[in-house]
């Protein structure tokens, strides 16, 4: 039988202070709590037979000091007592009935006492108030809610635990029976009218609670003064028993009108058919964590809840049904439902215990305490006179049992918990293992083969739990990680352990005199390392230790165990984990797709990685792309690739520069690292005019001034040209990249007539939209280019050589098609007749510049440095080292052959072939030049170059040659780029016997200005200039004989638009002008009639393209009127009709072309006044005429030839 102490009667709450005297005395005995010496201050002899304490720390101190169990006062009630043992354990004793004593050994004894105008149930922790003399007050209150009658309550008669209210309304009386946690209300109903009054006459209200719904209950949930745990006050279902013994259960309905009205539904049997008077019962119950509950359900009365054995009868239900005891489990005869016992019914029992948990037990500052279950035992006594039977015990749902449970819940709840055995008439169950939550025990016996008859209120639960825990603060997660995520990795085979800290708790931890050990277990659970015990020093971080022998690579669980000196206390905090990984990962493959790439594009990188043991659930690798082009859009973070299951991956990279050496770093979790990189060559896409991904080429057809679009094919070749419009003969054009920021390639064009610079916005279809004026005044510059980002601001800039000072200027692009103010970034550039943006050839992130030195004919590569250009290297002759410098037109075109290297195209000035070249970053050839097209001699590439037809010294300025008649010495007068001369050089007297001297331009295609000379025998020679103001007599080239028949010879210009300088001669006999087409190598082709009727003209010369229509023109003085006439060239080997320019040219000779002598962008010429030898400069206007003449030099009567 149960050893629960017997019930002791009649102790009021007013005498409760005496019951706590022992606890107060115990607390007074604890001196200086929180210190190690506090235990020594406990006077064990003064504790008495039932020692108790208010808190866990105080209870532990008494228990360990005095070797006694100490009652934990805050966690004890009439239904449950919690003890603290000397072994650092908690022992919980819970009973289904309120039979346990307090710290003085007295049990709860509810009794009604007067308190003001109310009655109060005294002698219980859960007092209830009843109305007494205040007939308008609530009928019942419990601190959380109030149950009220709609009318006035009569003054009750009361005695002991019973109060009687006569005539709530005619025919309706009420008897209240007070209990420890249950107050029964029994209504006597004399007739239907009284029933109707009861059915809607009760209300429930609460100022601090909320109405909640449990099946069958009318309940109020509140926290209120009950702390953090909920308290429920509830009405159980109403039970009806009529005068004939018929029993019914009435459903309750709630309606709200400020308070909740308790509406009793009509019972299943009409009220009029029942035998009056009716006994109608319900209970107001208090439900909280310190009130254990029990009850039963039966198939004999399936809608009837049997709470604590009662069902509204004068005796327990099963007793009234003819059974022994107040609880039956299994089959039985229910004489209430079936007096003849013709049917076997089933019954089931329930118990609900709640053991104190961490939230209620843990003192402030000791939230780390845990209470692992040691044992749990459930027992219940067989009913008096009944044989003990132990049905299987089940664990029910987390919500557990409540007073509204009826038969239908039996079939849906419960899982096996334990089998029991009968010991001395008591069914005993060991439920240590099956209960998942050691703080909530919801138990049930759902059935039995044999009928089990119990004393339901004798059920008892005893739970023993260890008090375990230390104020333990583990080492950093990087040292040893807790939780599910493994974050601690070591690339050292002797990983650190320790580094934790344990603080003292209220002097109790120090008294344990603890030591500690560490155990490493691998994934199989085998012990890899077990350390010897070390003394624990409280309040100090433990030093780090390392194993003496290395551990194999793998994952380890590290368990720290703390043990007291006497061995009675052991504690193991949550284990932590560490992985030992000493093997470095490897980037096995790092590769990019083999295709053409442009800066700004995205490409994919393929990577394959490897590592010992990879992949595994704890081994994963992380690859970091160490390049800004890997940045995640909208973030400054670079791309990270994590390898968990697969060893290969691809990731995108945006090219931000040419010549990328893409670096990556591969890490494992232990920070072992491998570095790798892959070269990613790329170029800028600046010349894709039609948006097909290939670089294209623009060129002007000299014959008609049409701009031709040559679509690139991506293999180094171009399609035949498609005209995109005429009028480009007088425009210096340059392929400029995207100047206005619309993503399309544009053109720059300088109108040579006006000197205005225009933007031709690309339309993405190989053409452009309406041109836009950028600014005027650009005729004062020579060569210019665009497309290079000189200052690294992401916008294409403009570079130009200014003729006035020979400096290279940079005009920063604004990204909208305009440019900022130019800044001189280098001097000494007057000798360069061509500059072109070459892309980033050395792949250092800065654009480079290709320039041609007119003095040597050589090309130089200037390396960008972010603010201009620094070092330079000479480009091999012929661009590839295989020939001479024979290219006057060279322009970078980007990567046209798909090898991710910048390419150049050049027109061979001798053959007219279009050649493809590529340069390395050091200026050397990537491959030999490749002819990709022929017949390009009559084309002008869209790259603006300076006309050096008359520049013999290579300084960028037009010069004048004059021979002294007295000795035949030929002088070279260096033009200063304005209206005068600089230093004077000489070719000596070797040419004194020549009968004619004439400027020839670059007649042999070597890039230098040459001179034509005719000897007395009529042989015409080419004297080849060296670009420095001299010539090599040994390199004289014979052109042909019979030239004495020509009374005038003109050269230096391309009249038939084939790209080569021609010769024009006047036949003295016929007056015809004959065109001798130059071949670009110093020879001529068969003559072609150019014009007729020229015997009446003198001082015939060709100053170049005077009207800026792209074709070379001719001027001459008509002898009959001494007027000068302008003959515009057509570009096809013929001339337009002459137009009179000016007259009064009497007394002038030696009219000679000098090109743009004054640097204003227009062709000029000079003439000598015979009378005094004064030489005048006639500055061209760009329309075929000239402005007011200016004196260039005086006293040149000595000269017998001027060119």
Automatic annotation (TrEMBL):
Matches recorded under Pfam families: FG-GAP_3 (PF13517)
Gene3D superfamilies according to UniProt: Integrin alpha, N-terminal
Protein origin, superkingdom: Bacteria
Signal peptide limits: 1-38
InterPro entries cross-referenced by the UniProt entry: FG-GAP, Integrin_alpha_N, TAT_signal
Keywords: Signal
Keyword match Phosphoprotein: no
Record bears the keyword Ribosomal protein: no
Protein name: Repeat domain-containing protein
Native source species: Glycomyces sambucus
């Amino acid at each position: 039988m149960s050893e629960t102490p017997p019930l002791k009667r009649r102790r009021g709450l007013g005498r409760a202070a005496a019951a706590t005297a022992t606890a107060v005395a115990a607390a007074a005995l604890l001196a200086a709590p929180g210190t190690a010496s506090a235990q020594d201050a406990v006077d064990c002899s003064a504790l008495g037979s039932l020692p108790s304490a208010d808190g866990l720390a105080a209870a532990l101190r008494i228990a360990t000091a005095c070797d006694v169990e100490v009652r934990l006062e805050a966690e004890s009630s009439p239904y449950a007592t919690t003890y603290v043992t000397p072994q650092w354990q908690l022992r919980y004793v819970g009973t289904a009935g309120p039979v346990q004593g307090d710290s003085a050994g007295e049990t709860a004894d509810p009794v009604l006492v007067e308190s003001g105008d109310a009655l109060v149930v005294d002698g219980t922790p859960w007092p209830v108030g009843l109305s007494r003399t205040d007939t308008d007050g609530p009928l019942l209150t419990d601190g959380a809610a109030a149950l009220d009658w709609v009318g006035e309550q009569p003054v009750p008669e009361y005695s002991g635990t019973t109060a009687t209210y006569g005539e709530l309304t005619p025919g309706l009386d009420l008897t209240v029976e007070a209990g420890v946690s249950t107050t029964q209300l029994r209504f006597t109903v004399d007739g239907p009218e009284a029933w109707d009054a009861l059915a809607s006459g009760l209300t429930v209200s609460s100022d601090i609670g909320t109405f909640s719904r449990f099946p069958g209950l009318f309940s109020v949930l509140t926290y209120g003064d009950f702390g953090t745990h909920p308290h429920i006050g509830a009405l159980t279902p109403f039970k009806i028993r009529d005068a004939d013994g018929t029993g019914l259960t009435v459903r309750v309905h709630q309606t709200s009108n400020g308070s909740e009205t308790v509406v009793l539904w009509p019972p299943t049997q009409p009220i009029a058919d029942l035998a009056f008077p009716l006994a109608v019962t319900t209970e107001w119950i208090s439900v909280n964590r310190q009130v254990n509950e029990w009850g039963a359900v039966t198939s004999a009365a399936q809608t009837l809840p049997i709470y604590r054995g009662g069902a509204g009868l004068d005796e327990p239900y099963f007793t009234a049904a003819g059974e022994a005891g107040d609880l039956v489990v299994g089959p039985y005869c229910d004489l209430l439902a079936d007096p003849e016992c013709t049917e076997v019914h089933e019954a089931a029992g329930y118990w609900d215990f709640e053991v104190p948990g961490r939230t209620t037990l843990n003192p402030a500052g000791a939230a780390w305490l845990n209470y692992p279950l040691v044992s749990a035992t459930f027992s219940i006594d067989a009913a008096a006179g009944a044989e003990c039977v132990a049905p299987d015990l089940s664990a029910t749902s987390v919500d557990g049992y409540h007073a509204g449970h009826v038969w239908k819940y039996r079939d849906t709840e419960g899982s096996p918990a334990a089998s029991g055995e009968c010991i001395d008439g008591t069914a005993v169950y060991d439920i240590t293992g099956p209960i998942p939550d050691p703080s909530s025990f919801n138990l049930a016996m759902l059935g039995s083969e044999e009928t089990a008859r119990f004393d339901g209120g004798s059920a008892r639960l005893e739970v023993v739990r260890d008090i375990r825990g230390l104020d333990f603060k583990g080492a950093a997660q990087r040292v040893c990680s807790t939780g599910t995520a493994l974050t601690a990795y070591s690339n050292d085979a002797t990983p650190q352990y320790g580094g934790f800290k344990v603080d003292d708790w209220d002097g109790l931890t120090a008294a344990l005199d603890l030591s500690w050990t560490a155990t490493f277990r691998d994934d199989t659970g085998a012990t890899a390392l077990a350390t010897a015990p070390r003394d624990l020093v409280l309040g100090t971080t433990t030093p780090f230790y390392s194993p003496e022998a290395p551990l194999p690579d793998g994952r380890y669980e590290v368990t720290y165990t703390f043990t007291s000196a006497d061995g009675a206390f052991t504690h193991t905090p949550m284990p932590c984990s560490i992985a030992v990984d000493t093997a470095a990962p490897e980037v096995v493959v790092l590769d990019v797709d083999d295709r053409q790439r442009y800066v700004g594009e995205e490409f994919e990188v393929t990577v394959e990685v490897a590592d010992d043991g990879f992949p595994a659930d704890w081994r994963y690798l992380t690859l970091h792309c160490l390049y800004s082009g890997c940045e995640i859009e909208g973030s400054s973070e670079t791309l990270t690739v994590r390898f968990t299951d697969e060893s290969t991956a691809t990731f995108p990279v945006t090219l931000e520069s040419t010549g990328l050496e893409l670096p990556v770093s591969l890490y494992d979790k232990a920070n072992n690292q491998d570095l790798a990189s892959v070269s990613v060559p790329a170029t800028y896409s600046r010349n894709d005019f039609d948006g097909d991904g290939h670089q294209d080429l623009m060129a002007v057809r000299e014959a008609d001034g049409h701009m031709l679009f040559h679509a690139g094919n991506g293999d180094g070749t171009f399609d035949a040209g498609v005209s995109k419009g005429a009028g480009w003969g007088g425009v210096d054009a340059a392929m400029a990249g995207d100047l206005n920021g619309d993503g399309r390639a544009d053109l720059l064009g300088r109108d040579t007539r006006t000197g205005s610079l225009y933007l031709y916005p690309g339309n993405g279809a190989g053409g452009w939209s309406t041109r836009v004026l950028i600014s005027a005044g650009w005729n004062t510059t020579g060569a210019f280019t665009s497309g290079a980002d000189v200052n690294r601001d992401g916008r294409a800039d403009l570079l130009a050589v200014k003729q006035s000072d020979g400096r290279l200027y940079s005009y920063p692009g604004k990204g909208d098609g305009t440019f900022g103010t130019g800044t001189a970034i280098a001097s000494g550039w007057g000798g360069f007749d061509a500059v072109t943006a070459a892309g980033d050839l050395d792949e250092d992130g800065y654009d480079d510049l290709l320039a041609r030195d007119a003095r040597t004919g050589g090309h130089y590569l200037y390396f960008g440095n972010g603010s201009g250009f620094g070092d330079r290297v000479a480009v091999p002759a012929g661009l590839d080292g295989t020939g001479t410098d024979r290219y006057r037109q060279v322009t970078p075109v980007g990567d046209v052959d798909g090898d991710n290297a910048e390419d150049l195209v050049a027109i061979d000035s001798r053959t007219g072939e279009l050649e493809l070249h590529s340069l390395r970053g050091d200026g050397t050839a990537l491959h030999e030049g490749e002819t990709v097209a022929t017949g390009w001699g009559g084309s002008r590439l869209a790259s603006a170059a300076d006309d050096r037809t008359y520049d013999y010294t290579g300084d960028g300025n037009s010069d004048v040659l004059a021979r002294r008649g007295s000795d035949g010495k030929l002088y070279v007068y260096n033009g200063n780029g304005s209206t005068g001369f600089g230093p004077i050089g000489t070719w000596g007297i070797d040419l004194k016997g020549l009968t004619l001297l004439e400027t020839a331009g670059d007649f042999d295609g070597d890039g230098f200005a040459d001179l034509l000379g005719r000897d007395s025998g009529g042989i015409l020679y080419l004297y080849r200039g060296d670009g420095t103001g001299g010539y090599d007599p040994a390199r004289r080239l014979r052109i042909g004989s019979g030239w004495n028949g020509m009374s005038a010879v003109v050269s230096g210009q391309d009249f038939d638009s084939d790209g080569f300088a021609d010769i024009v001669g006047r036949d003295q006999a016929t007056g015809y002008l004959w065109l001798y087409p130059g071949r670009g190598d110093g020879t001529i082709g068969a003559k072609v009639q150019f014009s007729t009727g020229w015997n009446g003209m003198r001082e015939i010369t060709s100053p170049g393209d005077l009207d800026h229509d792209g074709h070379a023109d001719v001027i001459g003085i008509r002898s009959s009127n001494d007027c000068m006439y302008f003959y515009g060239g057509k570009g096809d080997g013929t001339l337009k009709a002459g137009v009179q320019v000016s007259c009064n040219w009497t007394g002038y000779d030696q009219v000679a072309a000098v090109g743009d002598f004054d640097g204003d962008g227009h062709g000029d010429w000079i003439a000598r006044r015979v009378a005094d030898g004064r030489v005048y400069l006639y500055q061209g206007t760009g329309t075929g005429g000239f402005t007011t003449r200016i004196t260039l030099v005086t006293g040149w009567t000595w000269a017998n030839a001027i060119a």
